[in-house]
TrEMBL record:
GO molecular function (one): ATP binding
SMART domains assigned to the protein according to its UniProt record, in alphabetical order: HTH_LUXR (SM00421)
Organism: Saccharothrix xinjiangensis
Source superkingdom: Bacteria
Name by which UniProt lists this protein: ATP-binding protein
Domain named HTH luxR-type: residues: 701-766
PROSITE patterns: HTH_LUXR_1, HTH_LUXR_2
Length: 767
């Protein structure tokens, strides 16, 4: 059992121990050394996934660029473009606007040593095979480990059958050396307190294991029953199950029949409410929360207030598996498939899928309109957790002419949450908007015009061909006139185009109007109002005068602090830093930018660091540190390259970057500049580490105490010098509240209680 969403080196953290398979693991380690593709195949429930993850964990140190695990069940629709998007997201590749998702993946992996684990391939064998052929044909350092009940038929594929665990002979002596015994004992010790193998219960243990045929999932399922009955009764019940299975067949029962019989038996042990819930839960992709299960799975014979109890029963029987905090749950794939078959047979599949669609369609609307500031990170995390469900609902809605308009609305709502920006998946946003627009008739409908404006905005962010965006903006202007009422999204994209594509200060007024217009639309459009505020302020600090920019930056900073909007706050730091770089103290700008980077790292922002590191290059150049300027500009260039963003398409940014590069090159000379600039970053995480985690030289009288971050040390030194919190805030260009937060952490880390003790400690360190 593993926990989804929590990983170290790309391998999900196991929630239970791995038992057995030592010889097979050794064979697989050897094969990985010489074979580009190994496909683990075998009966459902046979432990293919668990074996693949154990193997990946054992060998990950052998791969310079790590292991990446991709769960493919949520992409089972067979859409090759969406499949590549899912793989890109799991691998952590920033998506690019200028290439297809598959080309982006291939380019990213081309020079890397990576083990790519593709789990549950049997639902989309052909598109997975195409993806694997493309990757292995271009990336000699990549190895692919797949789990599938069907071979991929890719050249070089080595098919490895994962057999059931060895079971003891009927007359075997008491021993836990047998792998199936070891697994049963391990799980029973964890789930059935006080139980152990004895000479007395050994014959019944052997009977149980022989009835499971050594299939790991079947063993896990029977251990659940040991909580409520002695192993002797359990063995008798399993004998009954197998007698029914073989009543009309004297031949040996196949393993897949045994697994099916065991799942049927587990199903029979469930209450009617649990059986109904099991079937209905099969519509979820990538997991579900209890509120989602209550909304989608209740109805008819299952009341809403019965869902929690039924889910508890499924968890008790290990049919549904929880996350560590039990906020989310999922079904193992063989059990999900069993539930899906029952749902089809029940005749209510269409109704349950309709409720699933409605829940996530309404959820997207709620998420888009739920921004209050302080909940910003939580909203983005909520979109992220259920993106697999959102994708399948979007595909279904857009694919049906009767619901295409609802699909357009959902694509707009998800775009408005800004998750695609936050997660570095802007091309996927354009994919869904483009499909939804293509599926709905052309008209001057406000929703359709808003979708087109969003698409144009994303094209601008990605630096897509300026002429193409110009044509779209001109088209939008005409459509807005046809609609006959103010459309803030169109005003916003017109202003954004003028500022970003043309570098014209006149666009700032349009952005101000858009900000005002979104505000007038009410609280449901608070996130759009906030985004317009961000871009309006960014535009002023890039193109405006100091008299315009400085008060705008301070007003925006105060607004973000009032709202508690962390993403916005990181951009407020950015705006304040640019003011300092242009007209104040570049050294202060550097501190502010690093503080913004720390916020962006904390909320896992994949977009903001591109521009913050770029601005670090500007500030270093103005501060006279040419080498540091070149390094930061090189890091930013690496991020822009892997994300497909063309900075030369964003005129104000390009102006500042060109100026900083010219100053650094002039100071260093061409050769030294190129050496410093050759500072590639292949991921946002790598770039953040290069900036925030690099050791900083410090003199003997300026060494910070162990445990303090650079930001905390900056605050501590100023407090030690006698400055008040407001004075420290002014010096570092941060808020007094941030100073207070830093001091609270400093006191805790240094085991002191107050300001006086901090000043005394620092004075002693200086002696």
């Amino acid at each position: 059992m593993t926990e989804r969403g929590q990983a170290t080196g790309g391998v999900p953290r196991a929630l239970s121990s791995f038992v057995g398979r030592k010889e097979l693991l050794g064979e697989l380690r050897r094969k990985l050394g010489v074979s580009p593709l190994i496909t683990l195949t075998g009966v459902g429930g046979g432990g293919k996934t668990r074996l693949a993850l154990e193997l990946a964990g054992q060998v990950q140190r052998a791969y310079d660029d790590g292991v990446r695990v991709v769960e493919l069940a949520p992409a089972r629709g067979g859409d090759p473009e969406l499949l590549a998007q899912v793989v890109l997201s799991a691998v952590g590749v920033p998506d690019q606007a200028t290439t297809t998702p598959l080309d982006t993946l291939v380019d990213y992996l081309r020079s890397r040593r990576v083990l790519l684990v593709l789990d549950n391939c049997e639902h989309l064998v052909e598109p997975v095979a195409e993806l694997v052929r493309a990757v292995l044909g271009a990336a000699p350092g990549v190895r692919v480990l797949a789990t599938s009940r069907a071979r991929l038929r890719v050249p070089g594929e080595v098919l490895v059958m994962v057999p059931p665990l060895e079971v003891p002979a009927e007359d075997a002596p008491v021993s836990s050396a047998c792998e199936s015994v070891a697994l049963l004992v391990d799980r029973a010790e964890a789930g059935v307190p006080g139980w152990r193998v004895t000479p007395e219960n050994w014959p019944d243990v052997v009977r149980v294991l022989r009835r499971t045929a050594g299939i790991p999932l079947a063993i896990e399922q029977v251990v659940v029953r040991m909580r409520s009955m002695p192993v002797s009764l359990l063995a008798d019940r399993l004998d009954d199950v197998m007698r029914v299975l073989t009543a009309n067949d004297t031949t040996r029962v196949a393993h897949h029949q045994t697994m099916a019989a065991m799942i049927d038996w587990s199903h029979a042990q469930c209450t009617p409410a649990e059986r109904l819930l099991w079937a209905r839960l099969s519509v979820f992709e990538g997991g579900f929360s209890l509120p989602a299960a209550e909304a989608v799975c209740s109805g008819g014979e299952l009341d809403r207030d019965e869902v929690a109890d039924a889910l508890a029963g499924l968890l008790d029987k290990s049919i549904a598996l929880p996350s560590a905090d039990r906020s989310r749950h999922h079904l193992l794939e063989p059990l999900r498939q069993h539930g899906a078959a029952r749902l089809r047979d029940s005749g209510e599949r269409a109704d349950v899928r309709a409720r699933h669609q409605e829940f996530f369609r309404q959820g997207a609307t709620r998420l888009a309109g739920g921004f209050a500031g302080h909940n910003e990170a939580a909203l983005l995390a909520a979109v992220d957790l259920d993106m697999a469900n959102h994708r399948v609902v979007l595909a279904d809605l857009i694919g049906d002419p009767a619901s295409a308009h609802a699909g357009l609305q959902m694509s707009v709502d998800l775009a408005r949450t800004r998750w695609y920006t936050y997660a570095g998946r802007l091309p996927e946003e354009r994919l869904w908007l483009g499909r939804a627009l293509a599926a709905t008739p052309a008209s001057a409908d406000p929703l359709r015009v808003s979708a087109m404006a969003l698409d144009a905005w994303i094209a601008l962010c990605l630096g897509v061909d300026r002429a193409q965006v110009a044509r779209r903006v001109e088209e939008l202007t005409g459509l807005a006139e046809e609609v006959g009422v103010p459309l803030p999204p169109v005003t916003f994209v017109r202003g954004a185009y003028a500022v970003l594509a043309l570098g014209e200060i006149e666009g700032v007024e349009l952005l101000r109007q858009a900000h005002e217009g979104f505000g007038a639309m009410g609280p449901h459009f608070a996130v759009d109002h906030h985004l317009a505020h961000i871009l309006h302020t960014v535009s002023l600090v890039l193109l405006g005068s100091r008299e315009q920019a400085e008060p705008a930056a301070e007003e925006f900073f105060a607004e973000c602090e009032r709202l508690g909007a962390l993403w916005g706050l990181s951009w407020a730091h950015w705006c304040r830093s640019v003011v300092q770089t242009r007209w104040g103290s570049p050294a202060r700008a550097l501190d502010v930018l690093r503080e913004g980077l720390r916020v962006q790292r904390a909320i896992r922002d994949k977009w903001g660091p591109l521009w913050t590191i770029e601005a670090l290059g500007w500030a270093h150049a103005e501060a006279g540190d040419a080498a540091a300027a070149a390094r930061m500009l090189g890091l930013a260039h690496g991020l822009h390259r892997v994300t497909g963003v063309r900075v030369d398409g964003l005129v104000p940014f390009a102006r500042f970057s060109d100026r900083a590069a010219a100053r650094a090159r002039s100071a260093l000379g061409d050769a030294a500049f190129e050496r410093a600039y050759a500072n590639p970053a292949e991921s946002v995480e790598q770039a953040l580490a290069a900036v925030l985690d690099a050791p900083e030289p410090a003199g003997p009288r300026d060494s910070r105490p162990a445990g303090l971050t650079q930001a905390e040390w900056n605050v501590a030194r100023l407090v030690g010098g006698g400055l008040s919190n407001p004075e420290v805030a002014d010096r570092l260009v941060i808020s007094p509240a941030t100073v207070h937060t830093h001091l609270t952490r400093i006191y805790r880390k240094l085991d002191i209680a107050n300001r006086h003790q901090l000043i005394t400690l620092l004075a002693n360190l200086a002696e």
